[in-house]
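Hey, can you fold this one?
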Amino acid sequence: MLVLGLFCAGCGADMLVSFSVSNFRSFDEEVTLNMVASNKLTDHLHHRIPIADTGQNLVRSAVLYGANGSGKSNLIKAMAFAQRMISGQQSDRLSGADVFRFRRSSISEPSSFEFRFLLDQKVFAYGFDLVKYQISSEWLTLVKGDDDSVIFERDAEGAVVVGPAARKGLGDDRMLASTLDVLAKLSIRPHQLFLNLLGSFPDATIGETLTSIIQWLTRDLSILDSAPRACDIYDRLDQDALFRGFAEQFLNRVDTGIGKLTFEKTRRESRDQRRDVYKVAEDSFEYMYSDAGFSGDTDEIPDPDDPTKVIVRRLLANHDVAGKSFSLPFSEESHGAQQLLNYLPILSAASGRGTVIVIDEFDRNLHPLLCEEFIRFFSEHPQCVGTQLIVTTHEVQLLSQDLLRRDEYWFMEKDRTQQSRLVSLSDFNVRNDLQVRKGYLQGRFGAIPVIGNTDELDRLTSYQTGVNNDATQETIP
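Sure. Predicted structure:
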């Protein structure tokens, strides 16, 4: 499947087209996660987002499988590393990329990262190369068809060249070239990205185009760990009756036993060091999934009537048993119920912008049927159309052509050189009626552990426990 240059006219969704990485952790040669839909597939047509005037589409989901150690999490780490470099969090640590370790020359070669993404009806490509602690190249281009028109390029010396795409202007942003011309004259540290330097200026200074690109790469692309906690979910449960009703119905529907969600509230004096944390949450998944102000099932918010006090909110889950109502602190609910509640903002279209949610080990703490129901709801309900979901998992319950398209399934596997390779299920010759789950477990698509003979392990275990398997052969005098 090729990574195509797309141009969207009026599709309205801001989405990931592809992500590519090379010479990072278990990736030596370039590996690409491609969200471009295969035109050969005719099932689940509503899972696609059409790209007007191109005949192409983007899929909204990518579910990645692979054995332990195959490199699934490394792909997510590569995205997160690149994002930290853009935001400046990684460059401040003066830490280079973790290169591929099974080829000696890789230490002196660049680690490369590139995002292609649909934004404001245009496709951009942004990427950079990093050698040890220094940026060797960086680029931002406008993609039209098979052509990339340069907006800016930066070399290893930090020199920035403004390209023809910026000179022509992008939409109403006629000041883009002159803005880049001025900022390109500023000194830049060897380990700092030019895009990071641009992000240090106010939005009004750098203009709409660059502001939108930086926002997409650093905020609308939300990369979560395996146990994310939705920071603003208490605000939504407390203040948004529609979301609270949705959460209650969803949790009840999947048999958690929870009927209602309520709050127990108290007031107390504010601690000075907390005051800066209690700001109004911005409508972005970056802020939503942080731990500010949380402890167990309790959070704290400023008291609107008294700035010296905070309101402590404790979330309670109400259960109806034999006609009577019982309330439990939400921290006493199962880990699966707690994790599911924190995933629910993904299903409720919390952000008006297109958002890409990336979750490593999506199935942790969740029952297989809960995982399946979550993915099905995400894929089928129109309120989720503005969101893409990319997850890694071992949960084979999700492997079904009744649930997702073949181009929404991906398999990661290491080859004999210890390189991670990524392949889509759509690249295999698979019938529409094939039981994909069964074929995967039988090894048809790779990406499963190869388990050797355990007889030797049994023998070693016997020695460790002081049992000599040959003792019965000895003659007792």
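The chain is about 25% helix and 30% strand. Let me know if you want another pass with a different chain boundary.
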